[in-house]
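Morning. Coffee machine broken again, so started the prediction first thing and wrote up yesterday's gels while waiting. Chain of 289 residues, entered below exactly as on the submission form.
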Amino acid sequence: MTRTDTAPAALAGGTASTPPAERSRHPARPVVLLWRREMIRLRHNPVRLAMGLVTPLLFLVVLGTGLDAASSSLGKAQLNDYRAYLFPGTLVMSVQAPAIAVGISLVWDRRLGVLRQMLVAPFPRAAIIFGLALGGATTGAVYGLMVLSVGGIANIRYTPMLLVVLLELLLVSLMFTSLGLLAAVTIRQVDTFQVAVNLSLMPLMFFSGAMFPPNGLPGWLDTVVKLNPLTYGVDAVRRTLPGPDVLTSEQTRLMLGGWHPPVVAELGMMAALTALALGFAGYRFSRTS
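Came back before lunch.
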C-alpha cells in the first residue's frame, strides 16, 4: 500500500525517473561533493581558521609596531642598509623548515608503522632521537650555508669568520630540531602536529628581532622579544657576521637592562635549551610503546 502511494509522487518530482548512473555522471555533482568536503574540513578544524588570522595580525601588530619603534631609534644610514640588517634573520629562517621537517617525518613514521620497526632494533631508543636530531641539524645547516653563500648581496664580507657563523647556524638548527622532536614524541596526530608547528614557528621569527631591532620597543613587545630564545640566536649571528656597521651598532645589539649579553652567553643559553629539549624528547621516546 505504501509503495503504491509513494511511487507517483516520486515520479511527479522527476527524481525517480533519472537513472542512478546518469545522476552520478552529472558534471555538477563532483563539484558539489568536493566543495562540501572542503566545507566539512573547515568546519571541523577551527584552528585552521584561527591560523588565517595569525599571519595578518603578526604583520600588522608586531612588524608594524617594531618598524615604527625602529624608525625613531635607528639612523637614516642604518635604515638604508636594512638589507644587511635583515640578512641574519633570513639565515635563521632558512634553517627552520628543514630542521622541523625531521619532527614531521617522525610523526609520519609512527602513522605508517615504520616507527614500530625502528623500536624493535637492538639499540637504545634514545639513539634514534639523537641520530634524527643530528641529521635535521646538519640538513638545516646545509640550507643555511646556501643562503650564506649569497651574503654578498647584503654586503656581507667573505672572511673565515663565516665558518663561525656556520657553527652558530648548526646550533640554531639543532635547537629547532630538538624542539620539533619533542613536539613529535608528544603529539601523535599529523594534523595537530602541523598546526602546532605553524602556530609556533612564525611567531618565534616575528618576535626574534629578525626584522626590527630588539631595543626601544613598547612594553609588551619588549617583554615577548626578550623571552624568545630565538632572539639570542639571531643576535649572536648578527654580531658575528662580517659586514656593515649596522650589524654591530649599539642600536641593533640586544640589550638586557643596560647590559649587552656576550655572544658566548647567548650561544650557551641556546645550547642549554637544546640539551633540555633533546633530553626530554629522548626520555619520552624511550617510554614509547
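The radius of gyration is 26 Å. Going to sketch it on the whiteboard this afternoon.
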